[in-house]
């Protein structure tokens, strides 16, 4: 059976930092399912269908990666796709506190699912979807920070 990880997020939009986590995750896992969360509490710029489309277009050349939309518990998505782990990227120490709490809660919900953290490459430690949205809305150039399919949506 293939080792599968779920890489969850809102991906509003997906960035090259996210892509780096995916590529590096494939060194450990045979298959990565990107879980694009609906998460209306975050007030995303793009609707769920557009975010999912951007992710699909950005990973289309890799058969080991798929993207699905989801609502509800992350552990339920992991069960649905027979995933053994949740893949998460860390950019800074401040990310660790939130991710530690989430990993602990997910372990409480299902101790069989591990959380695996990948440190961001130095080139991407400053990249966040929020910054991409803000810079793009103000007319700034984000072409070096997002996959090409994302540019047409911004």
Describe the structure.
The protein is α/β, with parallel strands linked by helices and about 150 residues long. It has a single domain (about 5-150), classed as Rossmann fold (3-Layer(aba) Sandwich). The protein is built from 6 helices and 5 strands; from the N terminus they run βαβαβαβαβαα. Strands 3-2-1-4-5 form a 5-stranded parallel β-sheet, sandwiched between helices. The termini are far apart.
Number of E-type strands: 5
Could you report the average pLDDT, rounded to the nearest whole number?
93
CATH topology: Rossmann fold
What class, by secondary structure content?
Answer: alpha/beta
Q: Could you state the CATH homologous superfamily?
A: HUPs
CATH architecture: 3-Layer(aba) Sandwich
Fold blueprint:
Elements: E1 4-9, H1 16-25, E2 31-37, H2 48-59, E3 65-70, H3 74-80, E4 85-90, H4 93-109, E5 114-119, H5 129-137, H6 148-151
Parallel strand pairs: 1-2, 1-4, 2-3, 4-5
Question: What's this, in brief?
Answer:
With 154 residues, the protein is of the alpha/beta class. It has helices at 16-25, 48-59, 74-80, 93-109, 129-137, 148-151; strands at 4-9, 31-37, 65-70, 85-90, 114-119.
Tag the structure with descriptive keywords:
alpha/beta; globular; Rossmann fold; five-stranded parallel β-sheet; 154 residues
């Amino acid at each position: 059976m293939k080792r599968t990880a779920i890489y969850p997020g809102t991906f509003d939009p997906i960035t090259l930092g996210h892509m780096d986590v995916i590529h590096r995750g494939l060194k450990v896992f045979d298959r990565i399912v990107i879980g694009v969360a609906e998460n209306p509490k975050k007030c995303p710029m793009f609707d769920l269908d557009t975010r999912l489309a951007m992710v699909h277009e950005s990973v289309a050349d890799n058969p080991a990666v798929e993207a699905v939309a989801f609502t509800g518990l992350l552990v339920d998505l992991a069960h649905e796709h027979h995933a053994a782990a949740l893949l998460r990227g860390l950019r800074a120490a401040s990310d660790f506190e939130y991710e530690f709490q989430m990993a602990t809660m997910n372990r409480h919900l299902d101790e069989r699912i591990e959380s695996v953290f990948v440190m961001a490459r130095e080139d991407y430690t400053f990249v966040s979807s929020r910054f991409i949205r803000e810079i793009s809305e103000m007319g700034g150039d984000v072409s070096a920070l997002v996959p090409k399919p994302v540019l047409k949506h911004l």
